[in-house]
Amino acid sequence: MTSTPSRLILATRNAGKVTELRAILSDAGLPHELVGADAYPEIPDVKETGVTFAENALLKAHALARATGLPAVADDSGLCVDVLHGAPGIFSARWAGAHGDDKANLDLLLAQLGDIADENRGAHFACAAALALPDGTERVVEGRLLGTLRHTPSGTGGFGYDPILQPQGETRTCAELTAAEKNAISHRGQAFRALVPFVRALLG
Fold it and tell me: Rounded to 5 degrees, what are φ and ψ at 117?
């Protein structure tokens, strides 16, 4: 590669996720301009047909890299509940049917777990972060945040299932943490920090 691309595309149109990833990657000292997929509205969303977080992350990253000719990073993440054998998992964003309806997803999950005692409410957030270059080069890494599920939502920060997951060693939910506190321990923070060395090695 003869020159370092100045722009790195984050393969998501979720404004909250773009803000979170920009903070994580910028704090890691990456010099690239970080933009969300909204900068390319003409590119259709990618169908998440993979059966793992890693497969879906790679699908999205490769599609955006091919369409733009620029390096792209993507993640797929979700909540994995022990008593549900890892569900909602890759279906987390559409657990209640409509993609991205956080309140409906949260309400349905809490109803399903209504009779489950505290000691059996273990869960974790999982994230796979992928980097794809236009030439097909790829890297993928994963991160996890272990915790337990509250019976009722608490906190106004974050998004998704953040209001009900209480990380191990914490008395607050992810939605009650500051953005900096959450990024320091989150599954997404872990995965993207692990991806940074690959970004540096491949892009400079």
Answer: -70, 160
CA–CA separation, 1 vs 133, rounded Å?
A: 11
Low-confidence residues of the chain, pLDDT below 70? 1-5
Sign of CA dihedral 44, 77, 71, 24: positive
Distance of CA 79 to the CA centre of its chain: 10
Sign of dihedral through CA atoms 161, 166, 170, 171?
Answer: positive
Catalytic member of 38, 45, 75, 76? 76
Distance CA 12, CA 23 (A): 15
Q: Tell me what pLDDT residue 107 has.
A: 96
Residue 126 token pair? 């999982």
Active site residue 102: no
Residues paired with residue 130 on neighbouring β-strands, in sequence order: 74, 140
